[in-house]
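INTERNAL AUDIT FORM
Audit reference: QA-55
Scope: verify that the stored structure record matches its stored sequence.
Auditor: D.O.
Record contents follow.
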Amino acid sequence: MTLYAILMYPLAYLYIRGVLLPPWYSDWGMPIFAALFILYTDLAARAAHRTAARETPIWAGCWLALSLAYSLFGYQPDPLGTWQWMAWHIFAVWYVLARCGMLAQGQSGSLVFLDAVAGFFRLPFGNFFLRVRTVFSALKTGLHGRIKVRKALRVLATVALTLALCGTAWGLLAAADTNFAALGQSVADWWNSLLNNIKFIDTLMYIILSLPVGAWLYGLVFGALRRTEPPTTAAQCTAALEHARIVPRSTATVAVAALCGVYALFFAVQAGEWFAAAPLGLSAPDAAAFAVDGFWELQKILLLNFGVLAGVHFLGRAPLPKALAAVFCGFGLAFAALAAGKLAVYVVLYGLTPRRVIAGWFLGVLAVWCVLALVRVFRPIPAAKLAIFAAAVSFTLLCCVNVKQRVIDVNLARYEAGIDETLDWGVLWECGYEGEPFSR
């Protein structure tokens, strides 16, 4: 452990210098740090004879791919860039949890939030001073028997007395001889230039900032390797949930059935509006209203549905009837299809923006989750695990696309084809376009 504690100092410095502080993350600091940290964690886990979870390569691959995407395309435009930065750190923590066998269920699953609490808080902060204790323990062991306490105090006292006497003598001799005083002044000037050097100060600040970062990273890795089981296991959660299952099956059934009734009424109203407008055709203002109205509300409805399913899973005394659960999940797919139609119309009318790209990705993930939930009603598949993988892998693939250039190309092509009368210069400049405003 001592060697790994020492190696964490330069590794944390690399994170501060090559990942956290450079603007726009345009260099190769992120993939280099990711590769070295993966190697560091893997070697430490092998030394501790820790068996990796089967999904470990997925998290390592996603993390490395996301790191390379930063180096190739830079910081993606917001809100994708903010999500990308968060996902980069989440993948790193999940790799450590998977490699060290600290996932609550032995794999990613429905206890994902407990894994997040363990990875970001319990393990690193619970072992925040572990690196310092490891280093000092090694120093104490190495010096034990070689330097006695009394002898060490004698050495310190000797050094202090010598420095005091030499400082006094230097001041007196400098007053007696101008050349000797000039020599002392040159030493003082060198010391002042060193302290006032920008590079020296920057390096010192990087080192200081890397100390808590290194303590957090070391606490995460070796806090996990010190344990024989995760901070919270699936068995413990199951035992705790037995006392929390307070929702009767009848209550859950009535509530979900009522939601299905509301959803059926909503789609009936939507169908009536479409049949009434079909003979007249959909005008441009009507199409715009259809595209804008309710898109985000539909995504919120999908999230509400997953919240209901999670509540029944964790708090319900019994699962929903299969027929009702299938209908409920089917409505989720219908909402996803309706939201996808609205987004498609919106993009056709107004073009592509980074926000619409991330909205399309998120909607696609929700649609996949709806399919997994529907399949889970009839077959015992690890739906939560597959849902997490779908979100992580698809987001990584999205970030491996030059979204900024894609948005620029699509909007310029629409303008040149006469689809758009003007260009949205705010979107273009946000994506890094360096052209000047012009008009036909």
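Auditor finding: record pair retrieved intact. Residues 249-277 form the longest helix (29 residues).
Action required: none
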